[in-house]
Every structure is written in C-alpha cells, then in structure tokens.
From TrEMBL:
<dbReference type="Pfam" id="PF10000">
    <property type="entry name" value="ACT_3"/>
</dbReference>
<dbReference type="InterPro" id="IPR045865">
    <property type="entry name" value="ACT-like_dom_sf"/>
</dbReference>
<dbReference type="InterPro" id="IPR018717">
    <property type="entry name" value="DUF2241"/>
</dbReference>
<dbReference type="Pfam" id="PF13840">
    <property type="entry name" value="ACT_7"/>
</dbReference>
<dbReference type="InterPro" id="IPR027795">
    <property type="entry name" value="CASTOR_ACT_dom"/>
</dbReference>
<feature type="domain" description="CASTOR ACT">
    <location>
        <begin position="72"/>
        <end position="127"/>
    </location>
</feature>
<feature type="domain" description="DUF2241">
    <location>
        <begin position="3"/>
        <end position="71"/>
    </location>
</feature>
<protein>
    <submittedName>
        <fullName>ACT domain-containing protein</fullName>
    </submittedName>
</protein>
Length: 133
C-alpha cells in the first residue's frame, strides 16, 4: 500500500469514519509503563507531564480528571507523513463550522479528535470538503 502525498487526491479519497467510543486527553506524571493498564490510545511526553489519550470510561475508572470529551474521526486514506496541507485543509474546514480539531498522525492514517457534541457536524464538514475536490 503506497502512501499518498498529493493533497487533492488525499482530500478526495479521505473517507472520514466516526469511530466508536469517547475519548479524553489528560496529563499524568511518571513513565508510560506506569500507565499501560489504562490502555492509552496514544501518548506524548511533554515537559509538563505525560499526555494520554484514553477512552473516557478508562479515565473515569482510574479516577483521572479531564476536560472535554472527544470523538475520533479516522481518515481512511493512506496518507504519507510527508504530505503537505492535509492537516491545514481539515482544520480550516472544521474551523469554518466552529469545530476544534486535534489531529494525530499515525503511520497509515490521520485521526481527528473533535468535541463529542460536534462529531456529526464534523463528519458532514469533512465529507463536504472531500466532495468539493
């Protein structure tokens, strides 16, 4: 499977899919190995602490505080990590609808976390962007 770098091709074929589950972003102290039982979807070490993206239910079970609940939208196109402009195009389309976008790029796909209550509106906005190309 070859990763796509052409922006128009990426947008036209991104096929956004709303994933099951609700997610939260939180910061914890310590090393990732201390938090593996939480089964984090993603993590990133910052100077202020370890940021985890967790299923909301996992955070609540562990009594971990968080602000905001997000839904994950996966762009099913195999985007190259060297593609230019996809994140900007997505963020712009969502910003025009008043929707914040927290983008996580993984090896095969881009994943956008949007406020839970705006997930359906975000899917519509991304579908319209895809159809416009």
């Amino acid at each position: 499977m070859n990763a796509i770098t052409d922006l128009n091709q990426l947008i036209a074929s991104m096929k956004p899919e709303l994933q099951d589950g609700s997610y939260v972003f939180t910061t914890v102290s310590g090393d990732i190995k201390e938090h593996l039982a939480l089964n984090p979807l993603a993590c990133f070490q910052e100077s202020e602490g370890l940021t985890l993206i967790l299923e909301q239910v996992q955070a609540e079970r562990a009594n971990i505080t968080y602000e905001g609940v997000f839904k994950q939208i996966t762009l099913t196109v195999h985007s190259s990590l060297e593609a230019v402009g996809l994140t900007a195009a997505i963020a712009t389309a969502l910003a025009e609808q008043g929707i914040s976008a927290n983008v996580v790029a993984a090896h095969f796909h881009d994943h956008i976390f949007v406020p839970e209550e705006k997930a359906t509106k975000a899917i519509r906005a991304l579908a319209a962007l895809s159809e416009s190309v």
